[in-house]
Specification:
Number of helices: 9
Structural class: alpha+beta
Order of helices and strands: HEEEEEHEEHHHEHHEEHH
Helix content: 40-55%
Length: about 250
C-alpha cells in the first residue's frame, strides 16, 4: 500500500489509501480523505475472470475501488473480446454508471481481486456535502480518459511487440505511484490471450510478439509476469513517454 509522507503505512485508509497516491493526493485535507474512505460500505472479493457489470447493463448501483489486483475494461463485438484498458489498486471502476445509469463496457478481474464497494446513494450524499471529493473523483476519470487516448495512439502507431512493451512500461509507471513497482519484475496474471486482446491480434501473433522481446534481450514474459534487466531500454523500444501520466503525479510526491 502507498506510504504517506510521514513514512507510515496508510492503515487509516485500508480501502482508499492508494487512491490518487502520489497523484494529487496531498492536495486534499484529512477530512476529505476520511470522507473518501467512508464511501466504502463493504469489502468484495472477485475470483479470477469474474465480472463486475456487463456491457449494456442499465441497472448499476455501485462503483468499486480496487484494493488489490488488476481489472480489465472490456468491450465485446461479434464474439470477440477487446481489452481497452487495465486498472490497478487505487483506481475506481464504474463511475460511469453513477453519471449515466448505464455502462458500455464490461469489467473483469484479471486474477483474484479485492475491492471496496461504493454505493451510488452514499456517493451522491458525499458529493453534495463535500465538493472537494467530486474534484478527487474527477481526477480519476481524467486519468481514465488519458489512458484511453494513449491506448488508441499506441494501437495505431506501434507494432505488436512494441504495444506489449508499452503496456508493461505503463503499468510499471502506475504501480510506481503506489510503491508497487519492482526493479526488474512486474508480476501480473495475464494470459497469452489477454495480451492478444490488449493488442487486437491473435494469440499466435501475441506469442510471436513476446518471443521478439526475448530475442531482442529486452524482456521475458512468463505467465504474464515480465522480467527485464533494463527498463530504460524497454521504454525506448516501446517509445514510452510517461507525460500522459505525469499530469496525475504530484510534484511533491
Amino acid at each position: 500500500m502507498y506510504r504517506e509522507a510521514n513514512g507510515t503505512v496508510a492503515t487509516r485508509y485500508p480501502f482508499t489509501g492508494d487512491f490518487l497516491a502520489s497523484r494529487l493526493r496531498d492536495r486534499y485535507s484529512k477530512a476529505d480523505l476520511d470522507a473518501i474512505e467512508a464511501l466504502v460500505d463493504e469489502e468484495m472479493h472477485l475470483p479470477e475472470r469474474a465480472t463486475l457489470g456487463t456491457q449494456g447493463d442499465d441497472t448499476p448501483s455501485f462503483a468499486a475501488i480496487i484494493v488489490e489486483g488488476f481489472m480489465f475494461r472490456i468491450t465485446r463485438r461479434d464474439g470477440r473480446r477487446f481489452i481497452v484498458s487495465i486498472h490497478v489498486p487505487g483506481e475506481i471502476m464504474n463511475l460511469q454508471g453513477f453519471a449515466f445509469d448505464r455502462i458500455d463496457h464490461e469489467m473483469q478481474a484479471a486474477g483474484k481481486v479485492r475491492l471496496g464497494r461504493i454505493p451510488f446513494d452514499r456517493l451522491e450524499r458525499t458529493l453534495a456535502e463535500r465538493h472537494a471529493v467530486a474534484g478527487a473523483l474527477w481526477s480519476g476519470t481524467l486519468l481514465d480518459a488519458a489512458l484511453h487516448r494513449k491506448w488508441i495512439q499506441v494501437a495505431a502507431q506501434l507494432d505488436a511487440p512494441q504495444r506489449i512493451a508499452h503496456i508493461y512500461c505503463e503499468l510499471h509507471e502506475r504501480l510506481g505511484f503506489i510503491g508497487q513497482a519492482g526493479p526488474r519484475v512486474l508480476r501480473a496474471p495475464f494470459t497469452q490471450t489477454d495480451l492478444a486482446d490488449m493488442c487486437g491480434v491473435s494469440a499466435v501473433h501475441a506469442n510471436r510478439a513476446v518471443a521478439r522481446l526475448r530475442e531482442f534481450e529486452l524482456a521475458e514474459i512468463r505467465r504474464g509476469t515480465l522480467y527485464t534487466q533494463d527498463w530504460d531500454s524497454l521504454r525506448r523500444y516501446a517509445e514510452f513517454d510517461p507525460a500522459y501520466l505525469q499530469a496525475f503525479h504530484s510534484a511533491n510526491a
